[in-house]
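Suppose a classmate hands you a notebook page containing two proteins, each written out with its sequence and a corresponding row of structure tokens. How would you begin to make sense of it? This section walks through that situation. The first entry is reproduced here exactly as it would appear on such a page.
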Amino acid sequence: MVLHFTGGSMQIKRKFTNKAKGPYNGIEFRNTASEIRNPDGSIVFSLENIEVPSNWSQVACDVLAQKYFRKAGVPKKVVKIEEEMVPSWLWRSEPETKNMGKGSGIDDYDGENSVKQVFHRLAGTWTYWGWKGGYFDTEEDALSYYDEMIYMLCMQMCAPNSPQWFNTGLYWAYGIDGPSQGHYYVDYASGKLTKSDSAYKNPQPHACFIQSIDDDLVNDGGIMDLWVREARLFKYGSGTGTNFSNLRGSNEPLSGGGRSSGVMSFLKIGDRAAGAIKSGGTTRRAAKMVILDADHPDIESFISWKVKEEQKVAALVAGSKSAEINLNAILSACNENIDDLERFNPKTNTSLKSAIIEARRALLPENYIQRAIDYAKQGFTEMEFESYSTDWDSEAYLTVAGQNSNNTVRVTDDFLRAVEEGSDWKLIQRRDGKVAKTINARDLWQQIGDAAWSCADPGIQYDTTINEWHTCPNTDRIYASNPCSEYMFLDNTACNLASLNLRAFQDDDGIFDGSAFSHATRLWTINLEIAVLMAQFPSPEIAKLSYEYRTLGLGFANIGGLLMSMGLPYDSNEGRSLCAAISALMTGVSYSTSAEMASILGAFPGYKKNSKPMLRVIRNHRLAAMGEKNKYEELTVLPVPLKDSKNKEAQKIIELARQSWDLALSLGEKNGYRNAQVSVIAPTGTIGLVMDCDTTGVEPDFALVKFKKLAGGGYFKIINQTVPVALSKLGYSESQIKDIIQYAVGNGTLKGSASVNHESLEARGFDKKAISAVEAALADAFDIRFVFNKWTLGEDFCSNNLGFTEGQLNDISFDMLSELGFTSEEINNANNFVCGSMTLEGAPHLKNSDLAVFDCANPCGRTGKRFLSVESHIRMLAASQPFISGSISKTINMANSATIEDCKDAYMLSWKLGLKANALYRDGSKLSQPLNSQTLDEDLITDAEEKPAVAKAEKIAKQIIEEFMANRLRLPHRRKGYTQKATVGGHKVYLRTGEYEDGRVGEIFIDMHKEGAAFRSLMNNFAIAVSIALQYGVPLEEYVEAFTFTRFEPSGMVEGNDSIKMSTSILDYLFRELAVSYLGRNDLAHVQPDDLMPDSVGRGEGEEGVINSATQKVMERLTSQGFIRSNATQTNINTKSMRDNGAHNNDFADEKARDNGSEENLIYGETQTLVRNEKLAKDDQVLEARMKGYEGDACGECGNFTLVRNGTCLKCNTCGATSGCS
């Protein structure tokens, strides 16, 4: 154990550095350039010749340079300003020109261009304030602290939260200053609350804030004042949370008469303000948390708030696109025959009549229909009607409310027990305490589950558990948290965070060094305490309470990477035990250090009032560390204790952790504590990138194959750096590891490929230049088909040398390799050879028993099926939470197939395991998120009530006899159709269709099993019977309704079909396929065509054109309508449904059309549209991003599709932007 307590002084022992050699001894540096580009190639940020450690990745260098380097105002020459009682090497600096009384010019200043400058201003400022505050016994201790901190920053062992990088040291190192921004601080010497007169002399290093709100409109501490306080925090890169339950509910009486508009009206104002202020509106959401208690009168409106707002977005998108299409169709119809004076009269202009009917069918207002005609009368040929998309940064999302915060419901144990019992729950008025409404608790719980499933909000915070672990309940309860839910304490307090990179504490043999980790924990606890001393705060209340309670937020990152590198599955008892041990060791050492500081500097001012409950909480922490199941004091929900581990490395950490808690309790009982809280686990978004962490907080990894950024631009595909370490730990040989990695990442070249290779391409017209272009694009490709396009090869080459038409090259569904004559099997084999599988499932040599070590939050690659369960996330949180002062920020990932019941069960399990908060994210729950269905074979199957086969046969026979007797309409002798090959439950099935010229299906062929098999003969005869019935006019819908959900073997998983992934029988599969292909019944598909689009509503933006009737007829004759449904994301050409085939009247016919006797307009299909090329290119980017493991959204700052889940927030792996506060 490295913790030293001397009983009267703070001694800093060196572990990483040598006094004579300085902090950078043995560390190599290099000069590099930093550049971040948008997807279109335009430069977002560029800085040449920056000095960085040689072992830092390019992403870490880019993030540090773009986010944390001071870009201007850094003097080229400085002078030291002498200060009494401060060592000369700690004197602050000012510009030389200012000190000499000279005027300064632009040439005298520059920006930071070396990490050494940044490390010096951070560590120097901390040491300076630490010296003045009495944290070091001698100058030698101060120098040791300075060197050790610089070394840890440089070696990516730990990093403070972003506001430290932004603000700390600008005044001390460079003399940069500015006018006060309305901040306050408590003078460390006098203890007096002081209004700051400087922007940077006392820096603003805190990332996380909790603020109160009074039920008052305009006075200090009230509603409108909160927006001002929030703005001050957002400006300096911090986040804030507030519990709004103080505000009265809607219709509660006002003191001056009248009724309150309720909390929701004010939440919408605050949401607007936050969206406008935070980062100039460039991040997804402001770092803001909105909390409401479960007994608030407006809780139901709060729960459904974001659900309804997303519905508004869907309506805006669908309505705007429909209006644009239909109104321009009216204008087009009015201008078809300019010489015809009656062209504006729908009675004589049949095209206009049809367009008006379509517009009315789309429910467009009559006013706008008439307006379009009036525009045409004035000579206009098209109408500009802005259409919206579901992109999260689009105008549609900016129009609605609720997009700039995380929403959370506070629930008590009483409420959760009421849910279990099904009893009533009372909603209480805020002013008089009367019951506003009584609702069944399960009904309210159902609403929470519905909303979480639908739009990933609200989250849950467990109020009783939070306050039973509260160290200062005698001051007040805990009502709220910061935006990411890791900091939970008194209102009007702040917390500054730092995170330790766990992988940086592994020795050369991969063993976690508990001694080094304890040493770093001690120094960073001192660091965060010094930050409280030197800080200024946005309001006097926060300055006062933060001084009095001195909460810290030390945490860690990269537990997922550490576990994988040690060969431990994330979802395992051993993995959870190690995470719990590290959590216990960190917080135990931190509380020991806090008690040590209290012996010299005194306990925090609020300790005396709260000593008994705080020591009770410390004892409960210690009991959990000792593995105690019971004996806890005043806890309703008992924590998950730290049990002994079979893993020797983990057991050593457990023993160290238990020693630390013995010391923390004994020192605390003697001295008290300097800090009311010491630890949280934050998302470590941007700082996680600076430390080159594979994973953040307690998150698992998101992908096994990463795309490493190169210094000169571009990316290179590499295996996750922990994978080969883990394979070696598991006992695989070097040659086996090489084969496994090659399986995952591929060869990156077509050289040596068995099918698609240089020779086969040359034989098809490729020259050396074209092959070189292909090879250059393969390095970061995840599918070779995305490389063979006009952008890689050039449009001239594709047209002149390969003979492709412009239409082919512009079609997103165009598969160049298939058109060149390569089979699907050859392309797939080449894909695996070049790009790899991007998963370890199916890798050579790898044992199935070892696959769990490499499980990620999402399925990996094109073929990966494995991913971590919801319960595994929750149980990892439960293992760590008993040893964390605050809480843990983490996203609990759920598959798209998860149900509302699954969401409710996850919330309930979290409560029973002692979590303080839970944030769920179901794949596809955000309208702006494309469904990850290509890699998630999670099947949403609705089980229909089974009926006996005889009853079904009787039903359909009756329908055929009574309803559909007609003359037989035979198929053309030469007819179109399509063939679909698939495997159902391990049995191959071939379905072939034959179509009429208008696209209706008229026959089917079914082939399976061996020649002569009885089942094959039965299916052949069944197909003949169905075909004859179709030709006699029996609608396909009747077969679909009769035979889907039938159950018999073979059944099960479906392979080879892009839309259907599970069937209950062969007939269920066949009629699902026909329904999807010919009837547009995507409700029977498990993967919908729109799921591959970045937005799931609408038909494209701009440049839409209606296909004229002549073209439509040609396309109906020549194109298989069943086949093109698989290309629906590219060309939406839908024919009339089977109900319009003459067997039925159209139910949607317009009454006015009937009045005018127009039979022609009684039948109409969807308006056909063509999608813009830019949108097609974006679809490629979204799909590629999802396949690489990213979210599929574009970063709001740099535009790259490299956003990943990060705690409850998002971060960009390209530029480091984050929607959180760390």
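The notebook's second entry, a different protein, reads as follows.
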Amino acid sequence: MVPLCFFKNYMGAEVEETEEQYRINLGETEISGRVNEAEYSVGNKKNAFTEAAQILGGKIYLPVAETVRALGWIAVEEGALVAVSPDESIKALEQHLGVNELTEVVAYLTAHTTLDVNTLTAEDCTAVKDRWRYEVVGSAADNDMSNPDIAAKIAAVNNDGNAAWKSMIKADGQTELFKGITTTASAHMTSTYQKLYQMTLAYGTFGTALYHNEDLKQDILYGVEWMYKNRYGVAEMNGTGWRSTSDYNWWDWKIGSPQYLIPILMILEEDFTAQQIKDFLALFDKLVPVPFDTGSNALNTAKYAIGSALLQNDVKKVIKMQNLVESSYLYVDNGRNIKEYAKAPEKTKGQGFYTDGSYVFHTLHPMNGTYGREQFNLIGPFLSIFAGTAFEITTPQADNVAGWIYNAFDPLIYQGSMFRMVMGRYPESLRNAGNSLIGGMLDALDSMNASDQAKVKAIIKGHVQEGCGVNYYTALTLPQAIRLSKVMKDDTIQPRKELVTNHVYHNQDKVVHQRGSYALGVSMSSSRIFNYESINNLNMTGWYISDGMTEYRVKGNSRQAEDTYWRYIDPYRLPGITVDTQERKAVSIAQGNEYLSDKDFVGAVSLDDTYGTAAMWLESYHNSDSTGATGGDYGGAAPAHDSNLQAKKAYFMFDDEVVCLGADVNASNDAEVLTVVDNKLASKTTVRSNAVASEPYTVLSVQASDTPEAENIAENTLDNNYETKWTSTNGANIIWDLGEERELGFMTLAFLNGSRRKQKFTLETSSDGRNWVETFSGSSSGKTEMEEGFTLNNTTGRFVRFNNLGNSVSEWVSMTEAKIYPPNADGSIEVQQADIIGADSFIADGEQIELTSENTDLKGTAWAHFENVGGYYFPQGGNLFARYTKQANSFMELWFSHGVNPASETYAYTLLPGKTAEETRMYAINPDIEVLSNTPELQAVRDKKLNLKGIVFWTAGSFGDITVDKPMIVMIRENDGKTTISACDPTQKQSEATITINRKLTATERDIMMTAESGGANTVILLNLENSNGRTLQGEFEPY
């Protein structure tokens, strides 16, 4: 909206206005209208603006772009920027594909304000610091103890701070600041600062029992000074300290420890002298003179550098850091922030957010849920702490943050949890990622314009109400919880309706399809995107995450998003993948050594952003020899593996169903090849045998010599919960006390990632806690996450001690459960495991099937149903099998076997998420879908209800009345005389292509990169694919 004088001053128009009406005359065009009305007149014709004319500050305001066009000029709208001109050249600012740098420059020059450092004062710094402090501890006004959610947050702050305080050491000659920490690595330094931070939060948060406790404050001051003298100070700056700052891990020195130190100094700023603050921050200031790396790392280091500058009232440095991270707001479609790929430098991509919502990081990995989330969660507070101050950020590209929410995050959250396919090397914590993103949205609200703020509040409210029992407050910071409470209590905010979308992430080979009642992700990889990440000894069995995995969840069933699902699923049997049964090596592959397929036909097309067709030419991982340089603790070479498995996989996403087709399934490695239809975690189990083991002893207490991670404590080994753990480093021990002497036969231990690595350790027993007898020295099997038995040699004792010697990939131990048993009568050292399998109902062709842990032959089955998940329709039958896995967390596995060395095999199945058994039966009798073709050249499916076809042209050719001259994916819908056509180039290599329709049509609406010509009896649609990067091009057509 602009005042009428805009049209006079910039366009030379004549304007008249009164309190009730207005008139604008430009050349031979005159428009007129009335205040508070959208309708206006152009000569004798009536029209209407999208917004009514308004009086603001005594002046009449009109929508600028619409008014300009009504006057005969050209207006270009890109985000918040409006550019107007009588000249066609202004159209150069239109943004058709990805990023238009000219538009960015014009917007920047239009909106950005350069701050004059000479006008900024210490009081301006204080205004920002006050906002920063609010983001840490809230305020007396907002910390509402009558609100149970807020009170619970404050109680947790108090408890954490009190626990840390109780573990503090203050003694002459002390070598540690807290009990339970033995410093051998930089991570222990960060853990020590974390405990000081917990104490400081308890001191500075209004409502805690420790709020402004003077004794607590004195101990915090002592701790900060001790850390300066012993861990993070002048000695380390001079290279004479306890550890070199260049040693692993850089993160602790530049981000990990500063993230706690700087807010401690913020909260207690008045209790330190200016010189003390300067001294405490000197090492950080030396290590981070400018933002480090890109993405979230750059933002993290910039944020804390700004915090350091604010604490020292260094306004020049604040502005410098603001300017240096401006690139963090930018999209990278144009190749910004390139990270070279050592094996093939030409195959590189920008690192960061793309306009389609993709977030690519660590060279070629999809990372929305990890590094993308972190960058977003840092940007929100970064913008908000400056909002309304003299340092307010005016860079117009900061408006992109709202776009990240709409495209990079909102479609990827369902029932409160993130999709696994964009979590990189972190296969778990999908729910935490979803919670964290809601927190980031709340943090960003203050920096948004009114329109985006209203949309985002509606999104937040919608996710919280659809959260499938998720308590968002528990994962939020106190200020985030305060904001969420306000949003949820505001009746003027209507929750966003359940999302119905088909969103193609063409820059990272991923698709998400949401229908309210279910959500599905298709995870692919190509010559452009790596298939999985496994650095730092994480996700070492993530081999097939991006080999066509279908990750779907149904409303009301969150089992498939739980950590348990991803921890215990068979990594060789992920749903949707086509895979051979050869054994893979579980190793950590250094960045740059990852596998890239040679196949570029991988992508998807969307129609109306509602329906989609995806396709992947699968080329399974293979490597003739172990390749790539070692990355030290980050990983090593890509291992050798011989597999020539290939398949052409296609996915057709409609309303009630997702159709999955496979053709040209070929392999010759003497291994069975499977296509996994589904793999779902059972909601209930049953015991099929009555094996009983002796009862474990009750442990009176447990104590660890070292607890570097505050939440991962020794008591977690006794809570019968595989989701918790005790973690520590090499040399640490943990002692269980039985309270009195007992006969000790054996003990069982379970380790996180126990199926992926071997834990090395010794076991000892003792009667007095001083004299110890070794009973075991060795390692776990590396084959299970469940308990394994280890001998205690039938000794007598009160205490049992575990001594960590590291694991097969690192120095750490992550123990989830421990139990101590008397001797078994037969002398064995194993708990006899009951035969536990799933008990959810499984029906095939109307017959209740009692699945066991043995393969159940379902050849020729037309339909099946699995309780609490939904149905499956098999239009062509097939060599189908099913079973339950035998374990406490039992999975229903359903798959096609293509046999050993398959040649030109196919498969076809339809997922019917959320349908009942009866609905599935009726669907199989009269299916909504029809498989039109499933060959190596062409795969096609028609939805009869929608009259919508998805077609994968693996080669140029014809199908029905459609002919294409290049490989592509096409969708076509014909309804009410209208034809809608969408297409994409999945290879991302073609410059142009044509679609010929055997009838005469005229375009009523089309993508700017699409043109149509009718000649004779045909219509030729020309697609300009230059730099389209697999983006969907869509047009609407009517009979000529």
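A careful reader of the second entry would note: The longest helix spans residues 148-166.
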